[in-house]
Amino acid sequence: MDTLNRMQTAIRGRWAVAAIFLANGFLTGAWAPQIPVVLTRLDISKFTLGLLILLFGAGAVTAMTWCGHLISRHGSRAVLRWFGLIGSFGLLVVALAPNVPLAAVAMFIFGGSIGGMDVAMNANAVTVERRLSRAIMSSSHGFWSLGGFAGGALGGLAIQNYGHLAHATVVTALAFAVIAVAVRYLIAEDKSPQGSSGVIGHRKFALPGNPLVYLVGLMALLTMISEGAVLDWAALYLQQELSADLAIAGLAYAAFSAVMAVMRFFGDGVRNRFGAVTTLRVSALVAAAGMLVAGLAPSPWLAISAFALCGFGIANMVPILFSAGGNQEGMSTGTGMSVVTTMGYSGILVAPSAIGFIAEHSSFGPIFVALSGLLVVVFLMAGLAHRAEFAPDAAPAE
Questions:
Q1: pLDDT tens-place string over residues 225-262
Q2: Which class for 214: exposed (0-12), middle (13-18), buried (19 or more C-beta within 10 A)?
Q3: What is the distance between the alpha carbons of residues 3 and 130, in angstroms, rounded to a whole number?
Q4: Residues 6+ apart with CB under 8 A from 270
């Protein structure tokens, strides 16, 4: 009976953390249509807006760096409660900021709450995976993609009809309601001797000494550089170098993200059947092939199809690498997850600006070809993600 109750609790926890992934994606997606409003409402230049967005990234990275320490002391459930409930108000605080200095503070806080929430929810998903002895990370990220799509797709229409403040208020109310219900059903890490993977311990902040976690973080970085490149530059590549009109150019990231979202809901089943390392290797090769064809494509439609293929591959690479980071031997789930997420998200936050600088002196085609080489490196390193494989230490869930 205890085993049955334990598994039922874990299943509820699985859907609770999925709901928080959905809410996090919804908040992030809802921010995108607010960006042009910030530009006009505060009467600022694009350069100043870029600095505000950079502060969002700085807040996210700062929180990600410290979140692992907080999780190791208090557990992912408690930390996720704090960041989740606070983070639900982040967009509203930005929407209320009346001037640039307050907007800067609001952006840093918003980014920090979303970043800390990200580490904590991924760490909690690893705890659920360990309890169920099966993968749930890919579908959790699928829920994040669904939330992002909903937030972005509905936001523009809501702002146009009701104003940016009404939109931010409704987004906050919905996110808070989902998170407030979900946190009641989150599961906590097992209490085990200090130093074991996934346990809560009262240690001082310190960077982990195991080099393997940094190599897993490097794989996440290389993967998310490619994801960020498609997000920020694929449309411009099609428009400037393949002579596509704006409507067609916009399909590049749409195809990439749509295929990625769908594949994430199939990813757990694939990973459970074939194993994390094999899935990562095949995914990296598929993504590399897609990126290579995109960089060499002579026509917009071939490039769009290639970016979709790249999304097919990348979809489950990041979830597997996050699971590997959260299961490192000799460190807590939060510590490993903090390293891997911080390194990984740096690829989206920092690399796109470097790519833009290179593109000014070159062209996007060779850059996408070079990025396919980075994905081949992930393929060669895939064996280092073996900690994402599951050992039969708990009864499998039905």
A1: 988 788 767 877 888 889 888 678 777 877 887 888 88
A2: middle
A3: 14
A4: 279, 316
Contact by Cβ (8 Å): 62, 112? yes
Region 124-140: what's the mean pLDDT? 86
Print burial letters for 31-57: b (CB count within 10 Å at least 16), e (below 16). bebbeebbeeebebeeebbeebbbbbb
Token readout for 161 is 């009809």
* Alpha carbon distance 130, 109 (integer Å): 32
Helix (H, G, I), strand (E, B) or coil at 367: helix
Tokens of 267: 């990813």
Distance of CA 63 to the CA centre of its chain: 14
**Structure-token pair, residue 26:** 């919804």
CA 67, 73, 77, 81 torsion-angle sign: negative
- In this predicted model, what pLDDT tens digit does every residue of 207-217 receive, in sequence order? 666 788 899 99
